[in-house]
Amino acid sequence: TMLSWLLIVGNFGLSYEQSKTQMALWAILAAPLLMSVDLRTIRPEYKAILQNRKIIAVDQDPMGIQGRRIYKHKGIEIWARPITPLYQNYFSYAIAFLNRRTDGTPSDVAVTLAEMGLVAPGGYRIQ
Question: Which pTM was predicted?
Answer without folding.
Answer: 0.85
